[in-house]
Design goal:
The protein is an alpha/beta fold. The chain has seven helices and seven strands. The strands form three sheets. Strands 1-2-3 form a three-stranded parallel β-sheet, sandwiched between helices. Helix 1 packs across helix 6. It starts with 5 loop residues before the first helix and ends in a 9-residue tail after the last helix.
Amino acid sequence: MLGETPIARALAGLGPALGYEVAGPPAGGSAEESLSGVHAVVVASHGRDEEAALTAAVRAGVPYVGLVASPRRGAAVVAGLDLTAEQRDAVRTPAGLWIGARTPGEIALSILAEVVASVRGDRIGVDDPAPEPAPRTALDPVCGMTVAAVADTPHSDAGGTRRWFCCEGCRTAFEADPGRYAEVR
């Protein structure tokens, strides 16, 4: 692992719990030779010494090479590597499976999940794009308008079933006489 970032520290803390030895950059010898037998290289250094580490890991045939970066910065870094197009495709950036991670610990968990999938040869989910949230809509039983069924949309649980409304006026009308609007779902 390369880096002293919060994500790198979280990786160093979580890795051993999964049976992975987490170490810093190898010392001595050529970088490619010192990576012999390494299963994964994760670069989480906020732009410090990334290119050399990524290039050496890919050339050494490390099964998992990940760069912690935003999609835009990661793509720029990978595009600038002195590697073939096929070799550049081996670099996972942003590193980690898409699980909606936000904190350093969650991001480290997503990276370790991707490492496990890579090391075990299971690519399920590894190349899947981030899921798009499915739009959730409902029909306002008063006016018939299609509305977003989300937390801040007016709604009512009158009658034991949640119904969504376009405005407070429709909700008020429904709650005054739910039986009148019972047929609309």
